Amino acid sequence: MSNLAVGATTDPGHSSDDPSRRDFIHIAAIAAAAGGAAAVVWPFIDQMNPAGDTLALASVEFDLGKVMQGQQVTIKWRGKPLFIRNRTPAEIAKAVQDDNASMKDPAKDADRTKEGKQQWMILIGNCTHLGCVPTFGGGEYGGWFCPCHGSVYDTSGRIRKGPAPLNLALPEYAFLTDTRVKIG
Amino acid sequence: MSGHSTYQPKTGFERWLDSRLPIIRLAHDTAVSYPTPRNLNYWWTFGGILTLCLGVQIITGIILAMHYTASADHAFNSVEHIMRDVNYGWLIRYMHANGASMFFIAVYIHMFRGLYYGSYKAPREVLWLLGCIIYLLMMATGFMGYVLPWGQMSFHGTVVITNLFGAFPIVGEAITTWLWGGFAVDNPTLNRFFSLHYLLPFVIAGVVILHIWALHVVGQNNPTGVEPKSKADTVPFTPYATVKDGFAMSVFLILFATFVFYMPNALGHADNYIPANPLVTPAHIVPEWYYLPFYAILRAVPDKLMGVLAMFASIGCFFALPWLDTSKVRSLRYRPTAKLYFWIFVLACLVLGYCGGRLPDDPVIPGLKTFILGDSDPNSFVWLSRIATAYYFAYFAVIIPVLGLVEKTLPVPETIASPALSHPAPAKTEA
């Protein structure tokens, strides 16, 4: 029978490593090309994320002596408005009293200020709906009112009415002294 | 319709060029000998008008870019410099700003024409989809262009629109930061929007070429919705369509010029002449008029994410339309019931546009206070936009699919030529 085995005819069922080796080369080449393409695409996407100097401007210091009781000062932080409000005792009392009222995003007033510095309400001044700047003292809770779509916040910056889903956001901040605060 | 070329090179040079680059043949087949249905009405002239608009926007835009500075510190002043100091800068800027509005007026008429005469139905689905893509690109381009003067409306409009993407769970914040290139809308945002605003019109031009290509493969629809069957049904593009398009363009340019010269700021918003201030939002923030219907849909939904999804879905409806319409008759001329619902749809779009420009809680009928339904008085713009939004989606999702199956249509003419002399339908026997 050995005289019949001569020739290049291969059994398609098995033997011959060639097809599977070729498949492997194809898969490996495609995988390498796809990985390479992805690696090249990423820098082109990531370049749109905040640049190093934008990230470096991330913290500011502020002298609280400039804000009288019952007033609010708005400063720019990371390109956004930052509300620094010196609340009156009546406003604080009202906010604490509402701690257990029904709210979309429940929070205690004490958790939104630093201990012993309850008069200082420091918030990011962008409505959590679509980012407009709410006006100081507006709305029926005496906190803030967003002119764009009518969201109402109380003096603790908690959302009480309107389309906004969340309370006004709290930035990261720390008191350096009694009258100096560092945000970011 | 894309039959054999009838171009005959006349000179030696034309023959020489034709065997190397048949560009004159292409122009001849596209704009001279191309057969157009003989019954096209003036609603069919808006394709040409839109091409004109794109050309005007690109030319004026390139000129403006020579004088404009894309920087948060200088953008506003550079626009004022264009208005006050650059020779004819005021004219070119007003042409560009009002040109955008003219472009959208024309595209809306063009789209409603397609809706009315069933121009999206087989075999024109790809043609229609390419049109939808052009419309999306126009919206993106128009939005980014409005940002560039860096006035109050530019800035806070950008804040609101980019924040829409923040509605998506988990990835939302990463997307907005990525779009902004920072923690808020700022100089990096302005720069990238300028870059893209310059790019996208050329992308639009590319898709327009595909749109025209697809049009020339399947041929134009016409008011009867009946495909041309013989030479008697068509006339050559030149002179018939070129002259008619030219006349329509002239009339359109009169409207354009009226805005540019007599009321250049009528379609804009005064607050955009105040430099951008991230710390104060204008009391009443509205987008440009051509986005108002979609803005009304966004606000009609009380939930932030659902509102954003509804807004995107309202545009998505147009993409799905060729497969939603079950009717075998193309033109609404022969579909009396569908015609009625179509005009209600047009009305709903206009109502949405009106509501989008009003404060949601303001009463529709002044002075009438009724009761609170859900979150506000039924006599308010938010409730009016809810009704219109419901009709908008019902039109695509229910009315169009169902009507195609149940409606009793009028007899459709055999050929274009037969009813062409006896319009309006149904075809009567008069000469």
Task: Describe what you observe in this structure.
The complex is a heterodimer of chains A (184) and B (431). Chain A is an alpha+beta fold and 184 residues long. Chain A has helices at residues 18-46, 52-56, 89-97; strands at residues 60-63, 72-77, 80-86, 120-124, 135-136, 142-145, 152-154, 159-161, 173-175, 180-183. Chain A has 2 domains: 18-49; 55-183, 3-layer Sandwich (Rieske Iron-sulfur Protein). Chain A has 3 helices and 10 strands. In chain A, the strands form 3 sheets. In chain A, strands 5-6-7-8 form a 4-stranded antiparallel beta sheet, with no helix packed on it. Chain A has a 3-stranded antiparallel beta sheet with strand order 1-10-9, with no helix packed on it. Chain A is elongated, with a radius of gyration of 31 Å. In chain A, 30% of the residues are buried. The mean pLDDT of chain A is 86. Chain B folds into 2 domains: 29-223 and 235-285, Cytochrome Bc1 Complex, Chain C; 287-410, Helix Hairpins. Chain B has 431 residues and is mostly helical. In chain B, 60% of the residues lie in helices and 1% in strands. The two termini of chain B are 28 Å apart. Chain B has helices at 12-18, 23-31, 46-67, 75-84, 89-116, 125-147, 152-164, 172-180, 187-218, 237-262, 292-300, 304-324, 336-356, 381-406, 417-420; strands at residues 35-37, 234-236. The interface between A and B is medium-sized, with 28 and 34 residues.
